[in-house]
Amino acid sequence: MERPYRWLQDRIVRTCALEKITSLEDTRAVLREEVQRYNYHQVHSSTGEVPAIRFANARKSGNSLFRPFALPKPYKSIKDVFCLRTTRTLDGYRRISLDRHTIHVPKVDIRDDVELHMVPDLTKHILEVRIWFQDSMVHSVNLPLNEFHRFA
């Protein structure tokens, strides 16, 4: 995998030097052209095939490790897969703490462990905290993102 990237990087640098390209936008255009040429026109030296055609044939014949994405059970949202995770233990009042925030967690007994799935939303400036217990989401709360130093 590293060899094609090293080759591509060397080729882009040489092309930019020969054509006296100095702007980032023009360099991006060179990159797009090279990636297009490499993937759809150049016969690969090891396989003897054009990479895009080889990949399409592998997918058609089922000889690929690419699979459609499916949510693992019990999750119903990609937020529970692509998230930051940690665990907390409920105190005697059915609460957990997350940094300086105290969150009341209903439907879970005291001293039980819950799993927190934290999803930062940079556009809304919130941290969605999804609380899971025994394969069920039992609570969700949105907290201000700017109050968490690790996301600032």
- Our estimate of the beta-strand percent is 25-35%
Number of strands: 6
- Rg over CA atoms, rounded to whole Å, is 25 Å
Largest sheet: 4 strands, antiparallel
How many distinct folded domains? 2
Distance between the termini: 34 Å
Order of helices and strands: HHHEEEEEE
Task: Write down the overall geometry.
Answer: elongated
Strand order of the largest sheet: 1-4-5-6
Provide the low-confidence segments as ranges. none
Fraction of helical residues:
25-40%
Structural class: alpha+beta
Can you tell me about this structure?
By secondary structure, the chain is an alpha+beta fold. The chain folds into 2 domains: 59 residues, no CATH class; 74 residues, no CATH class. Helices cover 29% and strands 26% of the residues. It has 3 helices and 6 strands. Strands 1-4-5-6 form a 4-stranded antiparallel β-sheet, with no helix packed on it. Strands 2-3 form a two-stranded antiparallel sheet. The two termini are 34 Å apart. The model has no long low-confidence stretch (mean pLDDT 92).
